[in-house]
Model the fold of this input.
Amino acid sequence: MRDSGRARVVLAVLLLTAFTLITLDYRSGSGGPLRRIANAVFGPVENAVGDVARPIGSFFSGLGHLSSYKSDNAKLRKEVSQLRSQLRLTDAERARLADEEKLLHLDQLAQFRIVAAHVSAVGGSLDFESTATIDVGSRDGITANMTVIDGDGLVGKTLSVGPATSTVLLANDVQFSAGARLEGSQLIGHVDGGGRGPMTFTLLDSQGTIKVGSRLVTFGDIGQKPFVPEVPIGRVTRVVPTPGALTRTAEVAPYVGFDSLDVVGVVVSAPRTIKRDSLLPPTPTPSSPPPSTPPPSTPPPSTSPTSPSPSRTH
Amino acid sequence: MRRCVLAAVVVVTALLLQVGVVNPLDLPVGQPDLVLLCVVALALVAGPTWGTVVGFAAGLTADVMPPADHALGRLAMAYALVGYAAGLLEDVEERSVVTTVAVVAGASAAVVLLFAGVGALLGDPRVDASSVAHSLAATILYDVILAPFIVPLVSGAARRAEPVTTY
Done:
């Protein structure tokens, strides 16, 4: 055991500094010069790390599929191993392409103007937060409080924006809340992220009824900030009994898989009106509840690994 | 001086690996805290003053590095205290793997509780019983698994960087 007076003085000074920072930042809200500098400095580095890490991640996920391609034929083994590496590449490429196709499809349906982006880092801070860094920033026209979507629906909204990166608050974070409307009705309420728990929908009408399987879309905010209207959010999986309460509550299964985000789009502008419920995935039959799996996307037009990806802004 | 540079490189690398590689893997239960492992490893070699300073600097960087979204200084405070405490255990004679793992487990629990505690004081809605329990379980579990690999690596490098003097 070694303790010196100096260590204790240093500890006291630094703790005091930390408390001062916490107080100042808590009062001024998020932002501040330190965070802005960090966005500018670390953002590009995170993009570079993300670019390197993404193929490695898809390599590992690809390994799971590879075993099914194994052949016992010794003669073919060499050929198979060559094909394997090709398959791995095209698998990752194909998944990426399918993601971008879906995003473009939703984007065209709504006539949104979006900026496409990749997720380059995922937050956590000891697993309390659900945030992500995407590789577009103020130089791509992104500002704080913009809707972030992917091909399946609502991903979140932008928080702080650096020159080359933006921080996205994902919709499953506890601090996330968005106005929402029940499909085919005027009933509105708000959807809140649940962190580790389920996402919830609170209907601001004690007379309205929520049915299991009903689907939710964003209601849209004034000036379309932070949320543009009609973006699919998810569907109701359970109605929570709240007898006597002024609001009604339900649990929601989001359309977006937050643990495997890759290609997302930031909505930079949206048309003034969007046809109601036009962006929801099609239902097979109106009477049966919608399928739990997302609708099949159109197959990519080309499986060549060198096929060009869609342009960033369009 | 060389140890300063080493500490900076180790901490920034750990932070980038954390957000860029480890968190996107989406491991079951949760994630390890690479930064904590590095802070503990450096403090165990270099003592309480160093441990405090490295912990504070690492925490502050983690606080501002995108995509973090919480009051600035929360992680700085938690890591500074843990760095100080780990530094007090500097040169615990015959430091075995078991001792190292025990120190890391204690430090993981302390960091989570300090971060969550300040969050609770500030009224952070993200902090509740279930999220704290989850974070505790994941951080302790993965840090204990990784400690026998990362701590000797970082400690060894720090020892080589400044072989004679310790502060």
Residues 64-73, 285-314 of chain A have pLDDT under 50 and may be disordered.
